[in-house]
Protein backbone atom coordinates (compact mmCIF):
# COMPACT_ATOMS: atom_id res chain seq x y z
CA UNK A 1 0.00 0.00 0.00
CA UNK A 2 1.06 3.61 -0.65
CA UNK A 3 0.66 6.29 2.00
CA UNK A 4 0.37 9.84 0.73
CA UNK A 5 1.29 12.43 3.33
CA UNK A 6 -0.58 15.63 2.60
CA UNK A 7 -4.02 16.23 1.14
CA UNK A 8 -3.47 19.48 -0.74
CA UNK A 9 -4.19 19.71 -4.45
CA UNK A 10 -1.01 17.76 -5.23
CA UNK A 11 -1.43 14.86 -2.77
CA UNK A 12 -5.15 14.47 -3.52
CA UNK A 13 -4.54 14.50 -7.26
CA UNK A 14 -1.86 11.82 -6.96
CA UNK A 15 -4.12 9.75 -4.70
CA UNK A 16 -7.05 10.00 -7.10
CA UNK A 17 -5.01 8.95 -10.10
CA UNK A 18 -3.45 6.06 -8.19
CA UNK A 19 -6.78 4.84 -6.85
CA UNK A 20 -8.34 4.97 -10.31
CA UNK A 21 -5.49 2.83 -11.53
CA UNK A 22 -6.41 0.22 -8.94
CA UNK A 23 -3.56 0.93 -6.51
CA UNK A 24 -4.17 0.77 -2.77
CA UNK A 25 -3.59 4.25 -1.31
CA UNK A 26 -4.26 6.05 1.95
CA UNK A 27 -4.08 9.83 2.39
CA UNK A 28 -3.01 11.23 5.75
CA UNK A 29 -3.72 14.88 6.56
CA UNK A 30 -5.23 16.56 9.67
CA UNK A 31 -7.03 19.12 7.49
CA UNK A 32 -7.09 18.24 3.78
CA UNK A 33 -7.30 21.19 1.40
CA UNK A 34 -6.29 23.72 4.07
CA UNK A 35 -2.72 24.53 2.99
CA UNK A 36 -1.49 26.68 0.11
CA UNK A 37 -4.19 25.11 -2.07
CA UNK A 38 -6.82 26.94 0.01
CA UNK A 39 -5.13 30.29 -0.62
CA UNK A 40 -4.27 29.81 -4.31
CA UNK A 41 -5.87 31.94 -7.02
CA UNK A 42 -5.93 28.96 -9.38
CA UNK A 43 -4.31 30.53 -12.42
CA UNK A 44 -3.22 27.95 -14.97
CA UNK A 45 -1.05 30.47 -16.72
CA UNK A 46 2.35 29.14 -17.79
CA UNK A 47 2.54 31.56 -20.70
CA UNK A 48 1.68 34.85 -18.99
CA UNK A 49 3.79 33.86 -15.96
CA UNK A 50 6.82 33.10 -18.09
CA UNK A 51 10.16 34.37 -16.78
CA UNK A 52 13.31 34.45 -18.88
CA UNK A 53 15.23 32.19 -16.53
CA UNK A 54 12.47 29.62 -16.06
CA UNK A 55 12.41 27.66 -19.32
CA UNK A 56 12.09 24.23 -17.66
CA UNK A 57 9.22 25.47 -15.49
CA UNK A 58 7.49 26.82 -18.58
CA UNK A 59 7.84 23.45 -20.22
CA UNK A 60 6.32 21.65 -17.22
CA UNK A 61 3.53 24.25 -17.05
CA UNK A 62 2.60 23.97 -20.71
CA UNK A 63 2.57 20.18 -20.46
CA UNK A 64 0.30 20.30 -17.41
CA UNK A 65 -2.02 22.95 -18.84
CA UNK A 66 -2.72 20.69 -21.82
CA UNK A 67 -3.87 18.02 -19.37
CA UNK A 68 -6.29 20.26 -17.48
CA UNK A 69 -9.43 20.10 -19.72
CA UNK A 70 -9.60 16.30 -19.71
CA UNK A 71 -8.58 16.14 -16.04
CA UNK A 72 -11.30 18.63 -15.03
CA UNK A 73 -13.97 16.89 -17.11
CA UNK A 74 -13.14 13.48 -15.63
CA UNK A 75 -12.99 14.81 -12.09
CA UNK A 76 -16.27 16.70 -12.46
CA UNK A 77 -17.96 13.59 -13.87
CA UNK A 78 -16.68 11.32 -11.11
CA UNK A 79 -17.16 13.69 -8.18
CA UNK A 80 -20.36 15.41 -9.26
CA UNK A 81 -18.63 18.76 -8.47
CA UNK A 82 -18.32 21.66 -10.90
CA UNK A 83 -14.73 23.03 -10.94
CA UNK A 84 -15.25 26.39 -12.68
CA UNK A 85 -12.45 25.80 -15.19
CA UNK A 86 -12.25 28.81 -17.51
CA UNK A 87 -10.16 29.01 -20.65
CA UNK A 88 -10.48 32.63 -21.76
CA UNK A 89 -6.83 33.55 -21.45
CA UNK A 90 -4.85 36.11 -19.48
CA UNK A 91 -4.49 39.79 -20.32
CA UNK A 92 -1.25 41.38 -19.14
CA UNK A 93 -1.59 45.18 -19.23
CA UNK A 94 0.90 48.05 -19.26
CA UNK A 95 0.58 51.69 -18.17
CA UNK A 96 3.69 53.58 -19.15
CA UNK A 97 6.16 53.44 -22.04
CA UNK A 98 8.56 51.40 -19.88
CA UNK A 99 5.88 48.82 -19.07
CA UNK A 100 4.99 48.59 -22.74
CA UNK A 101 8.61 48.04 -23.70
CA UNK A 102 8.85 45.20 -21.14
CA UNK A 103 5.71 43.55 -22.53
CA UNK A 104 6.97 43.96 -26.07
CA UNK A 105 10.27 42.29 -25.19
CA UNK A 106 8.34 39.48 -23.51
CA UNK A 107 6.17 39.09 -26.62
CA UNK A 108 9.28 38.75 -28.79
CA UNK A 109 10.63 36.08 -26.43
CA UNK A 110 7.29 34.23 -26.56
CA UNK A 111 7.21 34.47 -30.36
CA UNK A 112 10.62 32.80 -30.45
CA UNK A 113 9.26 29.95 -28.33
CA UNK A 114 6.21 29.70 -30.58
CA UNK A 115 3.95 30.51 -27.64
CA UNK A 116 0.62 32.00 -28.68
CA UNK A 117 0.36 35.68 -27.62
CA UNK A 118 -1.30 38.75 -29.13
CA UNK A 119 -0.07 42.36 -28.74
CA UNK A 120 -2.97 44.74 -28.07
CA UNK A 121 -3.37 48.52 -27.96
CA UNK A 122 -4.96 50.19 -24.94
CA UNK A 123 -8.22 50.52 -26.84
CA UNK A 124 -8.21 46.83 -27.78
CA UNK A 125 -7.57 45.93 -24.14
CA UNK A 126 -10.54 48.00 -23.01
CA UNK A 127 -12.71 46.49 -25.71
CA UNK A 128 -11.96 43.09 -24.18
CA UNK A 129 -12.25 44.34 -20.61
CA UNK A 130 -14.32 47.56 -20.39
CA UNK A 131 -13.66 47.97 -16.65
CA UNK A 132 -9.93 48.48 -17.17
CA UNK A 133 -8.47 51.86 -16.19
CA UNK A 134 -8.38 54.45 -19.01
CA UNK A 135 -4.63 54.83 -18.39
CA UNK A 136 -3.88 51.31 -19.68
CA UNK A 137 -1.66 51.87 -22.73
CA UNK A 138 -1.44 48.37 -24.14
CA UNK A 139 -1.31 44.71 -23.31
CA UNK A 140 -0.45 41.17 -24.16
CA UNK A 141 -3.13 38.50 -24.45
CA UNK A 142 -2.17 34.89 -23.75
CA UNK A 143 -5.33 33.26 -25.15
CA UNK A 144 -4.38 29.73 -24.11
CA UNK A 145 -4.03 30.43 -20.38
CA UNK A 146 -6.79 29.23 -18.10
CA UNK A 147 -7.87 29.25 -14.47
CA UNK A 148 -9.86 27.17 -12.01
CA UNK A 149 -11.15 27.45 -8.45
CA UNK A 150 -8.67 25.44 -6.35
CA UNK A 151 -11.07 25.14 -3.41
CA UNK A 152 -13.56 23.43 -5.72
CA UNK A 153 -10.79 21.19 -7.04
CA UNK A 154 -9.76 19.90 -3.61
CA UNK A 155 -13.42 19.44 -2.61
CA UNK A 156 -14.04 17.49 -5.84
CA UNK A 157 -10.94 15.34 -5.32
CA UNK A 158 -12.03 14.50 -1.76
CA UNK A 159 -15.50 13.55 -3.01
CA UNK A 160 -14.02 11.41 -5.81
CA UNK A 161 -11.73 9.66 -3.34
CA UNK A 162 -14.66 8.96 -1.04
CA UNK A 163 -16.57 7.41 -3.95
CA UNK A 164 -13.58 5.17 -4.66
CA UNK A 165 -13.38 4.17 -0.99
CA UNK A 166 -9.92 5.69 -0.45
CA UNK A 167 -9.22 6.20 3.26
CA UNK A 168 -8.37 9.77 4.26
CA UNK A 169 -6.89 9.62 7.77
CA UNK A 170 -7.40 12.95 9.56
CA UNK A 171 -4.15 12.98 11.50
CA UNK A 172 -0.75 14.62 11.42
CA UNK A 173 2.28 12.56 10.48
CA UNK A 174 5.01 13.04 13.08
CA UNK A 175 7.79 11.21 11.23
CA UNK A 176 8.65 8.70 8.55
CA UNK A 177 9.29 5.14 9.72
CA UNK A 178 12.64 3.83 8.53
CA UNK A 179 13.70 0.22 8.55
CA UNK A 180 16.67 -1.51 6.92
CA UNK A 181 17.67 1.52 4.87
CA UNK A 182 14.21 2.16 3.48
CA UNK A 183 11.12 4.15 4.39
CA UNK A 184 8.52 1.68 5.58
CA UNK A 185 5.59 3.82 6.65
CA UNK A 186 4.68 6.77 8.86
CA UNK A 187 4.21 7.43 12.56
CA UNK A 188 1.20 9.59 13.43
CA UNK A 189 1.08 12.34 16.05
CA UNK A 190 -0.77 10.03 18.48
CA UNK A 191 1.97 7.39 18.15
CA UNK A 192 -0.01 5.16 15.77
CA UNK A 193 1.85 3.60 12.85
CA UNK A 194 0.84 3.15 9.23
CA UNK A 195 3.10 0.72 7.40
CA UNK A 196 3.53 1.31 3.65
CA UNK A 197 5.39 -0.07 0.65
CA UNK A 198 5.86 3.49 -0.52
CA UNK A 199 5.40 6.86 1.18
CA UNK A 200 4.70 9.85 -1.05
CA UNK A 201 5.53 13.10 0.75
CA UNK A 202 3.18 15.78 -0.59
CA UNK A 203 3.03 17.94 2.53
CA UNK A 204 3.70 21.34 0.96
CA UNK A 205 5.95 23.49 3.14
CA UNK A 206 6.00 20.80 5.86
CA UNK A 207 7.82 18.45 3.49
CA UNK A 208 11.11 19.96 4.68
CA UNK A 209 10.76 18.83 8.29
CA UNK A 210 9.31 15.43 7.31
CA UNK A 211 11.73 14.44 4.57
CA UNK A 212 14.65 16.87 4.88
CA UNK A 213 14.08 18.35 1.44
CA UNK A 214 15.03 21.90 0.39
CA UNK A 215 11.57 23.44 0.49
CA UNK A 216 10.99 26.86 2.08
CA UNK A 217 7.80 28.81 2.80
CA UNK A 218 7.09 31.83 0.58
CA UNK A 219 4.15 33.74 2.03
CA UNK A 220 1.34 35.00 -0.18
CA UNK A 221 -1.51 37.21 0.99
CA UNK A 222 -4.58 37.20 -1.19
CA UNK A 223 -8.15 38.54 -0.97
CA UNK A 224 -11.50 37.64 -2.40
CA UNK A 225 -14.03 40.30 -3.33
CA UNK A 226 -17.63 39.81 -4.31
CA UNK A 227 -19.52 41.62 -7.03
CA UNK A 228 -23.18 41.28 -8.04
CA UNK A 229 -22.15 40.68 -11.67
CA UNK A 230 -18.84 39.79 -13.31
CA UNK A 231 -16.42 42.74 -13.44
CA UNK A 232 -13.95 40.97 -15.74
CA UNK A 233 -14.24 38.13 -18.22
CA UNK A 234 -10.66 36.88 -18.02
CA UNK A 235 -7.58 37.04 -15.74
CA UNK A 236 -5.96 40.46 -15.76
CA UNK A 237 -2.39 41.07 -14.63
CA UNK A 238 -0.18 44.09 -14.43
CA UNK A 239 2.82 45.59 -12.69
CA UNK A 240 2.08 48.57 -10.47
CA UNK A 241 4.80 50.41 -8.51
CA UNK A 242 7.16 47.64 -9.61
CA UNK A 243 5.00 44.92 -8.04
CA UNK A 244 2.92 42.37 -9.96
CA UNK A 245 -0.78 42.15 -9.17
CA UNK A 246 -3.51 39.99 -10.70
CA UNK A 247 -7.29 39.75 -10.69
CA UNK A 248 -9.01 36.43 -11.29
CA UNK A 249 -12.79 36.37 -11.89
CA UNK A 250 -14.93 33.41 -10.85
CA UNK A 251 -18.22 32.36 -12.38
CA UNK A 252 -20.12 33.12 -9.17
CA UNK A 253 -19.13 36.82 -9.06
CA UNK A 254 -16.05 36.35 -6.88
CA UNK A 255 -12.96 38.33 -7.85
CA UNK A 256 -9.63 37.12 -6.45
CA UNK A 257 -6.91 39.75 -5.99
CA UNK A 258 -3.39 38.52 -5.37
CA UNK A 259 -0.82 38.14 -4.23
CA UNK A 260 2.06 39.27 -2.09
CA UNK A 261 5.34 37.36 -2.16
CA UNK A 262 7.17 37.49 1.17
CA UNK A 263 10.07 35.51 2.63
CA UNK A 264 9.07 35.50 6.31
CA UNK A 265 9.31 31.85 7.33
CA UNK A 266 6.18 30.18 8.68
CA UNK A 267 4.26 33.43 9.15
CA UNK A 268 0.61 33.24 8.04
CA UNK A 269 -0.60 36.53 9.50
CA UNK A 270 -2.71 38.68 7.22
CA UNK A 271 -1.38 42.23 7.55
CA UNK A 272 -3.00 45.60 6.96
CA UNK A 273 -0.01 46.63 4.85
CA UNK A 274 -0.24 43.56 2.62
CA UNK A 275 -3.94 44.09 1.94
CA UNK A 276 -3.49 47.84 1.45
CA UNK A 277 -0.87 47.26 -1.25
CA UNK A 278 -2.96 44.64 -3.03
CA UNK A 279 -6.04 46.88 -3.13
CA UNK A 280 -4.06 49.98 -4.05
CA UNK A 281 -2.43 48.18 -7.01
CA UNK A 282 -5.61 46.38 -8.10
CA UNK A 283 -7.43 49.73 -8.18
CA UNK A 284 -4.87 51.09 -10.64
CA UNK A 285 -5.78 48.26 -13.03
CA UNK A 286 -9.54 48.20 -12.43
CA UNK A 287 -10.79 51.25 -10.50
CA UNK A 288 -14.15 49.61 -9.75
CA UNK A 289 -12.67 47.04 -7.36
CA UNK A 290 -12.98 49.32 -4.35
CA UNK A 291 -16.78 49.23 -4.70
CA UNK A 292 -16.88 45.49 -4.14
CA UNK A 293 -17.63 43.62 -0.94
CA UNK A 294 -14.62 42.09 0.80
CA UNK A 295 -15.45 38.41 1.39
CA UNK A 296 -12.21 36.67 2.38
CA UNK A 297 -8.58 37.37 3.15
CA UNK A 298 -6.00 34.68 3.70
CA UNK A 299 -2.25 34.12 3.73
CA UNK A 300 -0.78 30.87 2.40
CA UNK A 301 2.72 29.44 2.21
CA UNK A 302 4.03 28.44 -1.21
CA UNK A 303 6.47 25.52 -1.07
CA UNK A 304 9.49 27.02 -2.84
CA UNK A 305 12.64 25.19 -3.93
CA UNK A 306 16.07 26.69 -4.67
CA UNK A 307 15.50 26.49 -8.46
CA UNK A 308 11.70 27.10 -8.41
CA UNK A 309 11.09 23.63 -9.91
CA UNK A 310 9.07 20.97 -8.10
CA UNK A 311 10.47 17.78 -6.59
CA UNK A 312 8.60 14.89 -8.18
CA UNK A 313 9.64 11.26 -8.17
CA UNK A 314 11.51 8.64 -6.18
CA UNK A 315 14.47 9.51 -3.97
CA UNK A 316 17.62 7.47 -3.39
CA UNK A 317 15.94 6.01 -0.30
CA UNK A 318 13.79 3.04 -1.31
CA UNK A 319 10.17 3.57 -0.34
CA UNK A 320 10.36 7.38 -0.34
CA UNK A 321 8.84 9.39 -3.19
CA UNK A 322 8.35 13.16 -3.34
CA UNK A 323 5.55 15.27 -4.81
CA UNK A 324 6.32 18.68 -3.38
CA UNK A 325 8.04 22.03 -3.94
CA UNK A 326 5.52 23.29 -6.49
CA UNK A 327 6.05 26.88 -5.34
CA UNK A 328 3.64 29.23 -7.19
CA UNK A 329 2.32 26.67 -9.69
CA UNK A 330 1.04 23.68 -7.71
CA UNK A 331 -2.52 23.94 -9.00
CA UNK A 332 -1.28 24.18 -12.58
CA UNK A 333 1.17 21.31 -12.14
CA UNK A 334 -1.04 18.88 -10.19
CA UNK A 335 -2.27 16.78 -13.18
CA UNK A 336 1.24 16.47 -14.61
CA UNK A 337 2.59 15.53 -11.17
CA UNK A 338 0.11 12.67 -10.96
CA UNK A 339 1.02 11.52 -14.49
CA UNK A 340 4.73 11.58 -13.69
CA UNK A 341 4.28 9.49 -10.55
CA UNK A 342 1.95 7.06 -12.29
CA UNK A 343 4.44 6.64 -15.12
CA UNK A 344 7.20 5.98 -12.64
CA UNK A 345 5.06 3.49 -10.75
CA UNK A 346 3.16 1.71 -13.47
CA UNK A 347 5.11 2.19 -16.67
CA UNK A 348 4.13 0.58 -19.90
CA UNK A 349 3.46 -2.93 -18.77
CA UNK A 350 3.25 -2.86 -15.02
CA UNK A 351 6.88 -1.88 -14.33
CA UNK A 352 8.48 1.54 -13.96
CA UNK A 353 8.87 3.55 -17.15
CA UNK A 354 12.34 2.91 -18.48
CA UNK A 355 14.73 5.67 -17.57
CA UNK A 356 12.62 7.18 -14.82
CA UNK A 357 13.58 4.95 -11.92
CA UNK A 358 15.99 6.09 -9.19
CA UNK A 359 19.52 6.48 -10.48
CA UNK A 360 18.42 6.38 -14.10
CA UNK A 361 17.48 9.95 -14.74
CA UNK A 362 20.03 12.25 -13.23
CA UNK A 363 20.07 14.35 -16.37
CA UNK A 364 21.40 17.87 -16.60
CA UNK A 365 19.29 20.62 -15.11
CA UNK A 366 17.62 22.88 -17.59
CA UNK A 367 17.09 20.28 -20.29
CA UNK A 368 14.50 21.60 -22.69
CA UNK A 369 14.72 25.19 -21.48
CA UNK A 370 15.31 28.13 -23.75
CA UNK A 371 18.93 28.47 -24.65
CA UNK A 372 19.70 24.81 -24.39
CA UNK A 373 18.47 23.60 -27.68
CA UNK A 374 14.72 23.64 -27.29
CA UNK A 375 13.39 25.15 -30.45
CA UNK A 376 9.99 26.49 -31.33
CA UNK A 377 7.30 23.92 -30.78
CA UNK A 378 9.04 22.28 -27.86
CA UNK A 379 6.84 24.21 -25.47
CA UNK A 380 3.56 23.13 -26.94
CA UNK A 381 3.44 20.26 -24.55
CA UNK A 382 1.38 17.15 -24.82
CA UNK A 383 -1.41 17.60 -27.34
CA UNK A 384 -4.12 15.92 -25.38
CA UNK A 385 -6.81 14.74 -27.74
CA UNK A 386 -8.46 12.60 -25.13
CA UNK A 387 -11.63 14.58 -24.67
CA UNK A 388 -14.06 13.82 -21.91
CA UNK A 389 -15.68 10.50 -22.56
CA UNK A 390 -12.96 9.13 -24.80
CA UNK A 391 -10.09 9.67 -22.42
CA UNK A 392 -8.57 7.96 -19.44
CA UNK A 393 -11.18 6.19 -17.40
CA UNK A 394 -10.58 4.08 -14.32
CA UNK A 395 -7.80 1.49 -14.53
CA UNK A 396 -6.63 2.76 -17.91
CA UNK A 397 -3.15 3.89 -18.93
CA UNK A 398 -3.54 4.36 -22.64
CA UNK A 399 -1.75 7.69 -22.46
CA UNK A 400 1.26 6.08 -20.80
CA UNK A 401 1.47 3.42 -23.49
CA UNK A 402 1.71 5.97 -26.27
CA UNK A 403 5.41 6.17 -27.02
CA UNK A 404 5.41 9.92 -27.73
CA UNK A 405 3.66 10.55 -24.45
CA UNK A 406 6.09 8.31 -22.55
CA UNK A 407 9.09 9.98 -24.15
CA UNK A 408 7.70 13.37 -23.13
CA UNK A 409 7.11 12.17 -19.56
CA UNK A 410 10.68 10.86 -19.36
CA UNK A 411 12.07 14.24 -20.38
CA UNK A 412 9.82 16.10 -17.96
CA UNK A 413 10.69 13.67 -15.15
CA UNK A 414 14.35 14.65 -15.51
CA UNK A 415 13.49 18.32 -14.98
CA UNK A 416 11.88 17.72 -11.61
CA UNK A 417 13.79 14.69 -10.35
CA UNK A 418 14.69 14.98 -6.63
CA UNK A 419 18.10 13.59 -7.57
CA UNK A 420 19.22 17.01 -8.79
CA UNK A 421 19.81 17.91 -5.13
CA UNK A 422 22.61 15.98 -3.46
CA UNK A 423 21.19 16.57 0.02
CA UNK A 424 18.03 14.57 -0.79
CA UNK A 425 18.53 10.93 0.01
C1 LIG B 1 -1.45 33.36 -2.33
C2 LIG B 1 -1.14 32.19 -3.22
C3 LIG B 1 -1.57 32.19 -4.54
C4 LIG B 1 -1.27 31.12 -5.38
N1 LIG B 1 -1.76 31.14 -6.65
C5 LIG B 1 -1.53 30.07 -7.47
C6 LIG B 1 -2.06 30.04 -8.77
O1 LIG B 1 -2.73 30.97 -9.21
N2 LIG B 1 -1.81 28.94 -9.54
C7 LIG B 1 -1.07 27.89 -9.09
O2 LIG B 1 -0.86 26.92 -9.83
N3 LIG B 1 -0.56 27.88 -7.84
C8 LIG B 1 -0.76 28.96 -7.03
N4 LIG B 1 -0.23 28.98 -5.77
C9 LIG B 1 0.67 27.90 -5.37
C10 LIG B 1 -0.11 26.69 -4.93
O3 LIG B 1 -1.04 27.07 -3.98
C11 LIG B 1 0.83 25.63 -4.35
O4 LIG B 1 1.90 25.37 -5.22
C12 LIG B 1 0.04 24.33 -4.13
O5 LIG B 1 -1.11 24.59 -3.38
C13 LIG B 1 0.89 23.30 -3.44
O6 LIG B 1 0.06 22.21 -3.18
P1 LIG B 1 0.46 21.07 -2.17
O7 LIG B 1 -0.61 20.06 -2.19
O8 LIG B 1 1.86 20.65 -2.47
O9 LIG B 1 0.58 21.83 -0.76
P2 LIG B 1 -0.57 22.35 0.21
O10 LIG B 1 -1.75 22.82 -0.51
O11 LIG B 1 0.11 23.32 1.12
O12 LIG B 1 -1.00 21.06 0.99
C14 LIG B 1 -0.16 20.43 1.91
C15 LIG B 1 -1.03 19.59 2.82
O13 LIG B 1 -0.16 18.83 3.66
C16 LIG B 1 -0.74 18.76 4.94
N5 LIG B 1 0.32 18.48 5.92
C17 LIG B 1 1.33 19.29 6.29
N6 LIG B 1 2.10 18.69 7.22
C18 LIG B 1 1.56 17.45 7.40
C19 LIG B 1 1.91 16.37 8.25
N7 LIG B 1 2.97 16.41 9.08
N8 LIG B 1 1.12 15.26 8.22
C20 LIG B 1 0.06 15.17 7.38
N9 LIG B 1 -0.31 16.20 6.56
C21 LIG B 1 0.43 17.32 6.58
C22 LIG B 1 -1.41 20.11 5.15
O14 LIG B 1 -2.45 20.02 6.11
C23 LIG B 1 -1.91 20.42 3.75
O15 LIG B 1 -3.26 20.04 3.56
C24 LIG B 1 -0.52 30.03 -4.90
C25 LIG B 1 -0.10 30.02 -3.58
C26 LIG B 1 -0.41 31.08 -2.73
C27 LIG B 1 0.04 31.04 -1.30
TrEMBL record:
The gene is thiO. Residues 395-408 have a biased composition (Basic and acidic residues). Residues 349-378 have a biased composition (Gly residues). Residues 3-341 form the FAD dependent oxidoreductase domain. Its EC number is 1.4.3.19. Residues 347-408 are annotated as: Disordered. Pathway: Cofactor biosynthesis; thiamine diphosphate biosynthesis. This is glycine oxidase. It catalyses: glycine + O2 + H2O = glyoxylate + H2O2 + NH4(+). It is an enzyme of class 1 (oxidoreductase). Keywords: Oxidoreductase, Thiamine biosynthesis. The lineage of its organism: Bacteria, Bacillati, Actinomycetota, Actinomycetes, Streptosporangiales. One of its GO terms (molecular function) is glycine oxidase activity. Pfam families: DAO. It comes from the Bacteria.
Amino acid sequence: MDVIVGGGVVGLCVAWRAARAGLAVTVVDPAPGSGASHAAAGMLAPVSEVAYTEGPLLRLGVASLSRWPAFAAELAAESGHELDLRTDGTLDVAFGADDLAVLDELATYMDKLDLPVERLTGRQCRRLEPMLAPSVRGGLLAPGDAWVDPRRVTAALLAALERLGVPVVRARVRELLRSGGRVAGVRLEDGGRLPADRVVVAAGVSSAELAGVPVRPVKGQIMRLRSPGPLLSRCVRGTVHGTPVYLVPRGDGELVVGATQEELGFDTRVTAGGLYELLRDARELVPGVTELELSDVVAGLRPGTPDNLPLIGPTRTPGLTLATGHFRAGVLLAPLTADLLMAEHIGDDGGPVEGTGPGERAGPMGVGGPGDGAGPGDFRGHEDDRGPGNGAGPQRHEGLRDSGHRAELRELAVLCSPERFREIS
